[in-house]
Write a structure and sequence with these properties.
The chain is an alpha+beta fold and 212 residues long. It has two domains: 93 residues, GrpE nucleotide exchange factor, coiled-coil domain (Hemagglutinin Ectodomain, Chain B, Alpha-Beta Complex), CATH 3.90.20; 62 residues, Head domain of nucleotide exchange factor GrpE (Nucleotide Exchange Factor Grpe, Chain A, domain 2), CATH 2.30.22.10. The chain is 68% helix and 15% strand. The strands form two sheets. A three-stranded antiparallel beta sheet has the order 1-4-5. Strand 4 and strand 5 form a beta hairpin. Helix 2 packs antiparallel against helix 3. It starts with a helix and ends with a helix. 4% of the residues are buried.
Length: 212
């Protein structure tokens, strides 16, 4: 009986001594497995299999973001173009209305002058009376032009100015300064600083003054 107890005790001691060796072998085996290139390759392959899916998701998100930005820009451009077109049409309409208003105001002032011309044509008076009537109408016309800020261009007696005068003939005049306007053939007009039409004139040419 005592011999059996001794044997069991001995076996237990051997088993306890063997346990650290087993654990050590398992640890070494795990280290070998962790250092195994084949195992690492398998792990990397599994990681690489998931990478394309992640990259595809990121690219899809970027695509959707850029698409939204593009659509937003196109919408803004369309609205800006529509606003510009509306503003252009509005400006054109306002300009036409202003022009019509200005023309109507000017025409309204000339209507009495036209009425007087019609009365003159119906008149049965003498030639002198007709002439006096026409002179009155001309004065009335000039008053209307002045009310519209239309002024005649100065011509006779002034020095020829190509900016406001149009010479139709040079006349030799030794007693008149060279390039002086002798005669006004057609009156010129301006509105403030803007020339409506130049005055047609005959200009003096003094050869003696040129030689001096």
């Amino acid at each position: 009986m005592s011999r059996r107890i001794f044997v069991d005790k001995k076996m237990n001691e051997q088993m306890l001594e063997a346990t650290p060796e087993v654990e050590q072998k398992k640890a070494q085996q795990g280290q070998v497995e962790s250092n195994d290139p084949a195992a690492e390759s398998v792990s990397e392959a599994k990681t690489a299999e998931g990478a394309p899916d992640e990259a595809k998701t990121v690219l899809q998100e970027e695509y959707e973001k850029l698409k939204q930005e593009r659509d937003s820009l196109l919408d803004r451009m369309a609205r800006m173009q529509a606003e510009f077109e509306n503003a252009r049409k509005r400006e054109t309409k306002e300009r036409a209305e202003f022009r019509d208003f200005a023309v109507a105001g000017a025409v309204e002032q000339f209507l009495p002058v036209l009425d007087n011309f019609h009365l003159a044509l119906k008149s049965k008076g003498s030639v002198e009376q007709l002439r006096e009537g026409v002179e009155l109408i001309v004065k009335q016309m000039e008053e209307v032009l002045r009310s519209l800020n239309v002024q005649p261009v100065e011509a006779v007696g002034t020095e020829f100015d190509p900016r406001v005068h149009e010479a139709i003939e040079m006349v030799e005049k030794p007693d008149v300064p060279d390039h002086q306007v002798l005669e006004e053939v057609r009156r010129g007009y301006r509105i403030k600083d803007r020339l409506l039409r130049p005055a047609m004139v005959r200009v003096a040419s003094n050869s003696q003054q040129k030689e001096a």
